[in-house]
Amino acid sequence: MQTKDTWFGQPKGLTILFLTEMWEKFSFFGMRALQIYYMTKELQFSQATASLIFGSYAASVYLTPIFGGIIADRWLGRKRAVIIGGLLMAVGHFMMTFESMFFIAMAFIALGNGLFLPNLPSQVPLLYPKGDPRAVSAFNVYYVGVNLGGFLAPLICGALGEIYGWHYGFGAAGIGMCLGLLVYVMGSKHLPSDREEARPVPTAETAAGQSNIGLLLSVWFAVVLFRSAYEQTGNTLAIWADTSIDRLAFGWQIPVTWFQSLNPMFVFLISPLLVQAWMRREARGIATPPALSRMTMGAVGVGAAFGLLAMLIFFSSAAPNSVSWIWLVVFFAVFTLAELHILPIGLGLFAVLAPARFGATTIAAWFSASFAGNFLSGVIGTAWEYMTPAGFFLMIAGLCCFSGLLLSIIQKRQRQPLMQAMPRQSDMQAP
Q: Nearest to residue 195, comparing CAs of 78, 363, 115, 117?
């Protein structure tokens, strides 16, 4: 891409990818905000059955990208894969408006996501010349786009579903996916050609990429455990909030789905402040912790958020709606601050260490950790019926901390190669 072809100091293509991802995540999280309530309230599934279906579906949308990345790298190319995948997801979201097509609709969304998910972010590094320091900050910008869509989705789709009917919420999610496709197609001239990654790659660069596979596999396993705990926010935490949170604020009842907007809202509020804080540290000569150290802090921090929730429940009344909604805001503030130390860092790590010509496949491998973690989260969620809420969330906190321990061990064993592979934080810009 030409250096003059910029918006806000970044390549124009990043804005196109940002907006495309924002609308895709609006559709994805719009449906997700309604899914657990739709199954338990409308379809009359038991909590355990709904939890298992929720986890299995969430797992499947991160399993299919493994095949979608391979198909794009070998045959389709990134652009065609994104367009075909987006069309399949749009059809699936509109199918959700028909109760009889519930499971078929989820299958369409999962298949479409397989083509879409690995091939959009894998275009980000191709927007920059080799060695361009903006390439790392690009993933912070991109992650804000992900969460902007996630923030808007519960507010719009969730409110439509709760107030006017579930199918209106699902329909709004389908419209969001169509808008994302429109942005992508109209802005495709600003995106890198699929032929750009087909250029010859030096043998030394290929060998370096292959040598990182063991490291990425180790990180993958630790992230699987983390995701199994992290994903409880849309599953068991949502169920607990529906019955235990006092949602009355200034004489108005807050829709329970709106609380799922807190996490993405804090992402784009905290992200710029966090990056600026890291940059100021380095300006004063204080080294920023390496990538895996920050990921360790993130996993432990999310564990601390769940531990805080467990303690709150333990010392509160067991009566329905006995916990103030303010505590849920506090939980998500701590949760999000910790999340920003692990998820965008991990995505950037996999992108930077990807073997040559396997960018989409490597990104798919990162998302496959979400597949295994989401499925495990559904299995773990079935224990909700047999445990106290405080005990359950304390167990989730322990799982996060164990994941952090594994990441710390990986960091100690891989310190020098990883520090050489990742750019300095001072080269990054705030989104």
A: 78
